User: Fold this.
Amino acid sequence: MLSDEEARAAALSPPRALSLPRSAARFRVTAEDFLVEEELGFAPSGAGSHLLLKVRKVNANTVFVARALARAARCREHEVGYAGLKDRKSVAVQWFSVPRPRVAVDFAALSSPEFQVLEAHPHARKLPRGALAGNRFRLRLRPAAQDSAPLAARLQESLAVIARRGVPNYFGPQRFGREGGNLAALHGDPLALPRPERGFVLSAARSLIFNALLAERVRSGGWEALTEGDLAMLDGRGSFFAVEHVDDTLLARAAALEIHPSGALWGEGDPQSAGAVRELELRTALDLPHAAGACRAAGMEQERRALRLRVLRAEVALESDAVVLSFALTRGAFATAVLRELIEAGDELPEA
Assistant:
């Protein structure tokens, strides 16, 4: 059984995988230094009982915006849809849905310092959680030294490696609350918590187990290599298949980042993996009994998440006093997973 300190380290400070040169850099000096834009992957239907709203928010959390939209649309808060939460200290371009109001509403007139509705489109249904193709990030990094050119050069070299190999698909610090506060609640009864708080704590429990087992595979070098007993996951998708024998075809697909090893998102029963992979996942859950017990008590199902994250469309641009790093990730992935392989930033890694 891991101590509280060991569990917190597994969640917030898992090991890096790539031997890349990392420079000290500051980021998010202002909210504008961290821009994330959702990529829906589909077009609004153009007709229907809902409206899809494209919103730009600054220094505001997703729930705050959802409540404001509910007031404007004269609907209940739970009727507002959004694909996922976005960090408060950022500029986020995010999609929401509201039931189509009976009386026309000028959503553009809701403009405020916190958010602005950029577009409104008729749509057939409420936007569900996870209904994204991915997210596009634009991060401004400020080097510790005055000259930003060396940082830009190192990032270019490192991104070439990451484009070939990917990075470990860790859950980021946001999942565990401020200073890991969601983990402390696992020592009580998470099911007795109010619904929103309960959801955050259960999510943290699952993410802790996943980060811990991914950390073990990073330490053993097995985070990017398929092995017998693995469940291989298709890149950017939730579907997976059992690996009974590793042949040249599977090795080639893994090398091309088409498929990845996966790890357990804990729940009732045992994981579907086999052999040494299954043994590691069961052992990790036993080491974290409070987290595993909370997942089972809540009736969560065993699911899978890719151990490796593919980084797409990475670019570096040089400014006079900063470097702008841009890249795209699949839904559910954290920019933290990329940045921790690239820079040294203490405990101030971004939470998105």
